Amino acid sequence: MADRKPERVLLVEGQDDKHVVLQLFLRSDAMPSFDIKDKGGIDELLKSIGPEIKVPGRKTLGILVDANDNPGNRWKAIRRRLQKQGFQPPASPHPTGTILSGRPRIGIWLCPDNGRPGELEDFVEAMIPQGDSVWPRSQAYIDDIPESVRRFREDKALKAKLYAWLATRKTPQRMGTAIQAQELDIDGALAMRFADWLRQLFA
Cα separation of 163 and 64, whole Å? Predict the structure, then answer.
C-alpha cells in the first residue's frame, strides 16, 4: 500500500479514516499505490496542506475530510489554503470527488459524498448490506434511549447506531475491520464512487 517515496499521499483526519481507506484499498481492484497520512485531527490537516504540497518530489496530494454539519464552510477552509498555493478550486466540490490538475495534482473528498453534511460514519453506513436484519434493530436501540440519559449529541446519533451495529458482529470490531471481514458491502454506489476517485487521482 505505502509508497516509500513521498510522491502520492492521501491526508486523513484520524486512525479510523486511515483504516477504512486501507481496507477499501485492499479489497478494491486495480488500485494504484499511495501512502496515507493520519494528521491527528482537522486543524492539523488543514495546517499541513501548504507544507505537504511543497514536499520535494510530491506528485499527488489527496485530502479526505468530514463535511460535518456545514459542508460549505469546510470546503471554503480547504479552498482558501489551496488558493494560497496557486490552485483554483471550484466554488463547490464535484459530486464524484474533486481533482485539480497541477504540480502536484490535488484531490479533495468531503465525507460522506461531497454534498451532504456528515462524516466518515455516514460514508460507512452506506456500506451496510441492503436488507440487513440487525441494522433496523441497532437504529431502534439508539432511538429508544431517553434524551434525559443520552451522553451523545443529536448529530452523533448515526455514529451511535453504527457502533451499535458493529457491536453485533461475530467479533465486535472497528469500521475498517468490518470491511476486511466482508461484513460491509464495498460494491454500493458511494463506495465505488470513492474508489473510482482514488484510482483517477493516484493513477
Answer: 21
